[in-house]
């Protein structure tokens, strides 16, 4: 199956929500480890894994082996989303008579391994890989092991075996989330050097202390180390692992346990605990309000865009926004697809190509070839027919589909026909054409109105605020309903891109926290607000939430 | 009385595997650095691509075999008895016996071990596996075979290769007296009556079958007619034949080179006490560990643990007095 970046993200979101709903219904289960591997699962299920939900025992299928079997809800949810069984069955998780056992079981179609007793799955994968080789099958084994699981000696027995037999039809992921049942892995049984896990952000800073990869390298493995929540990195790592011949490959994915839900993130309590059903709607809103920061590099040095891209990489931008201007649709001219093609090898970060050009249908293929991950065209220069054609082209090339409107334009009626295909709608908050303009205040009202309207039309993509977005107004834009934020001079114009992106994120996060406290208040008044706040025990989250609740008068 | 012939269980196992390998390309063999001793190395020489020596890593051995079996192979995994059930109960339970694809029960892995029981000998108590029958018997879907001679090993290797599912088959280290003729038929779940008799029944598995026969000879001299049953299929056990023996002979003595707790004798007790209670005596290791004994001292070691034909004969006599 080949989905674009945004479609994969939506599947991951669906799966995450199912994990929450199912574990809440069951009253037990393991959301933490299901969420740390959620992006890995998504990239496997919706990009690489070859399977047929209608024929689970298809002989030539790839096999996904979840060795860290306690993360079963994270596997089941994807099997449900992929169509192995009805999504409603997720409600039977851990129930007497259900095929969705507490740990993965062959009773459930699509499950290839009875996991749960840790340390076994890698050996089992080696066995399956050897069998595929003996049978001359073009079949791949994908295996996910845990870092706590790596305490098991058998993992290392299997590691040696895979190296001895040069198993290269198997791709292994280590979900390195730093937490096992009792506490942080570095406190229970260190894999790395003296990483004390109270502040995960600190761990990330010092890659020199990452020793897990060295262990695997010394066992004769090809080691690929990535951020396990970044789709582009996961996809690239799988591609590289699958191309590696003559030795086994492991992708060490640095992840965050409970990723996506603030109170679960990096919190050992959520290794094996289900959320209380009354907070499920709040968590769902939280999951649905993930956001992205996309710096616009034309706000920087136009003569050295390579440098600007690198700054975005250092700043860990979610996307890089590329404003293509042709001097006709807008008065200015920036660059075209040839420049994008030149920039493409510099990073894996998705390119968000915003085509401010006339007759986009004529050019869109060039922008696909240049390596854009999403291409946004302007409603002002499309009609139903040309946009339909653009959608078809982008869709068949697995490129995201975006539609932009200028400050004085409303969404055209024809766009509702494509609403399920749309990955992004850009609502311009300045008149396009040049960088450094001031945010048009009336855009807030416009975003709110369009967000509400699109929600009613079951739009599942992102609304992107573009133009004059800065630290002062990003929070308000978030509240309006925007979930992607283009930062021009407010990001690229600053010295420390990394710091400013972090602050952008913090502002959006604060806004989201407000949203969720309001939600809690709507659902269950002060009592539920307090319960919600009390869940946030790691770091300084709780203090901030108390503050916000006071400001909102919810406490 | 004819001259006793000895046979080597491991040699027969190895020969059968070679022949099976020729016949069935789906057969794979795994070892854990004991392939010379288990004599499975010959399979590796002939079919190198279907032979996997995973080193001294038994847990891995079991689970790699499980993976091969899940992908359609018939996997024979072999090492010493002490290292398989002893070390890898979890892997055997969770990666072989528990996973049940479709209508099948367990994965198609055959755990064939050598050096079961006290007769492992000189290696000492740490290496004498006297608890494996109890442990393997308690796992759902697992079938447990304890052949009494090399003929049985050869025939059973063929049978388990062709019969789907997890099997545990225990071989002894020393050469053993050949008991069965080449024409003897074997069936899983069916015991073999080696000698008919009406006064009492002796049923045994593994090397103690020979002792049972010897005991029956001794008893015959005293005018006691003993039925002797080779119950190589400990699980599933031949309930029907044992019940019949209980009914017809009135008492049963069980023999095994294994702890009497949970082993073969216990299996017989379970069946008989529920359906046709008769007095039973169990000959076997009395909940103790073994110790080193050189080859010529093995009879002494067995005697120390009460596993002799004389003790079997005495047990029969005691039971008969109670009847």
From TrEMBL, chain A:
Has keyword Zinc? yes
EC numbers listed for it are: 5.1.3.1
An example GO biological process term is:
nicotinamide nucleotide metabolic process
Record's signal peptide: none
Name the CDD domains on file: RPE (cd00429), TPP_TK (cd02012)
- Cofactor requirement: Zn(2+); Mn(2+); Fe(2+)
Q: What class of enzyme is it?
A: isomerase
Which keywords does UniProt give here?
Carbohydrate metabolism, Iron, Isomerase, Manganese, Metal-binding, Transferase, Zinc
* SUPFAM superfamilies referenced in this protein's UniProt entry, alphabetically: Ribulose-phoshate binding barrel, Thiamin diphosphate-binding fold (THDP-binding)
Q: Where is the Transketolase N-terminal domain?
A: 12-274
Please name the GO terms that the record assigns under molecular function: D-ribulose-phosphate 3-epimerase activity; metal ion binding; thiamine pyrophosphate binding; transketolase activity
- Keyword DNA damage present in the record's keywords: the answer is no
Summarize subunit and interaction data from the UniProt record for this chain. Answer: Homodimer.
The molecule here is called Ribulose-phosphate 3-epimerase
Q: Which organism is it from?
A: Marine Group I thaumarchaeote
Q: What is the lineage of its organism?
A: Archaea, Nitrososphaerota, Marine Group I
UniProtKB/TrEMBL annotation, chain B:
Q: Which Gene3D superfamilies does the annotation name?
A: 3.40.50.920, 3.40.50.970
User: Which residue ranges does the record assign to the Transketolase-like pyrimidine-binding domain?
Assistant: 7-178
The UniProt record lists the keyword Flavoprotein: no
The superkingdom of the source organism is Archaea
A Gene Ontology BP annotation from the UniProt entry: sulfur compound biosynthetic process
Q: Which UniProt keywords apply?
A: Thiamine pyrophosphate
Is Nucleus set as a keyword in this record? no
Q: Which residues cross the membrane?
A: none
Xref: SMART domains: Transket_pyr
Name of this protein: Transketolase family protein
Q: Which cofactors is this protein said to need? A: thiamine diphosphate
User: What is the organism of origin for this protein?
Assistant: Marine Group I thaumarchaeote
Family matches, as InterPro entries? PDH/Transketolase, THDP-binding, Transketo_C/PFOR_II, Transketolase-like_Pyr-bd, Transketolase_C
* Protein family: Belongs to the transketolase family.
